[in-house]
Amino acid sequence: MKVGIIGTGYVGLPTGIGLAELGHQVVCIDNDVNKIDALKAGRLTIFEDGLEEMFQRNIASGRLSFTTSMKMGVEQADVVMIAVGTPPHPVTKEADMKYIHAAATELAEHLTGYTVIATKSTVPVGTGDDIEALIAKKNPIAHFDVVSLPEFLREGFAIHDFFHPDRIVIGADSERARNVLKNLYAAFQDKTEMLFVKRRSSETIKYASNAFLAMKIHYINEMANFCEKTGADIDEVAHGMGLDSRIGKKFLNPGPGFGGSCFPKDTMAMAYMGRTNNVYMSLIETTIQKNAERKKEMAWRILDAVKDVSNPKIAVLGLAFKGGTDDCRESPAIEIIAELLEQHADIMAYDPQAMGTAAQLLGDKIRYADSAYLAVKEADVVAILTEWKEFESLDLEQIGDLMRHKRIVDCRNLLNAEQARLLGFTYQGIGK
Questions:
Q1: Both 158 and 211 in a single domain?
Q2: I want to staple 333 with a disulfide (CB 3.0 to 4.6 A). Which of 7, 267, 278, 385 is the partner?
Q3: Catalytic member of 28, 227, 262, 411
Q4: What does pTM read for this prediction?
């Protein structure tokens, strides 16, 4: 099938590459000339484990191409996916729909024949109706259906999740559109559940899922605080909870709070939609508030570890919001660093992939090292803020030799606490 994808970010690009790998003819469209030029030249513009090889293979096969021309990407497509950003509105925190509306209006004039318009972006309930109206107004003779096709790709695991989905949710009110999407995802029909629901139900499923997972993270962080006061071990508690099939083990990792491009904006958007529909989402509202407080708490834990040191140097390991990606949007690490900088902290940071994206946010307010070992040199405390595998295998003996004071605040519980203490470190984890 011929597929056009509008947007080449952390949703659109992995989706396009995955669909090309399935054998579809995919054109990715973006109005960022520099980004498209880079992709045409064979340079990925995001980092995702496993994406590079598949990207190169499908460019070479001719199944994957890139353009700034909406006409070229849409005109002959059987399916057009909208995968542009829906950032939070700066005041209300509702999903800002200007990019969605602009994409729908622009694509409308290039529709030829029957086309399924699929919304991949996370959008408020009723957006499908708005897109339908915009297209019909712009091109009254267009023959199309609008469907909701939410993505459930985890950053850092996008390729794995694309080819091993828990479910494929399709919100379609037309039998013809449902059949088109069955053909698009035919490779998965015997391997995963394809759930067909009302369009508005599909739009809600994405928000409801992300809000629930965010609440799960907040819950385990509260339990970690409880464990610290009572002498229980949060890792043991989380493991025991996760063995219950009704709960499950995922998203029970205590840490510095959730971040990234999805959970923060989606919880705020869900809370806003609740208020506009006179439904107070008390659990979601509390989760948003407490997650913001969590980052400040982590910053003060780090500062407390060096309260007896004059002009302490803090080594930060991890800048991305999670391991496996270079995305720093709403990263707990960035927000913790911001709080540390408010207290005039001297920070040297390292991240395996996110140095460039972090520098766009922090500039020269901190210093950057080329390795974890260079970051900790002469440091008074090491703060581990992102769960990169690389940090799990650090040579603690070498780290200790490089530091001025042997202190660790492990906000991800990556290190072996007993080993660290045997080597003379003052070690503080989460929920221990």
A1: no
A2: 385
A3: 262
A4: 0.90
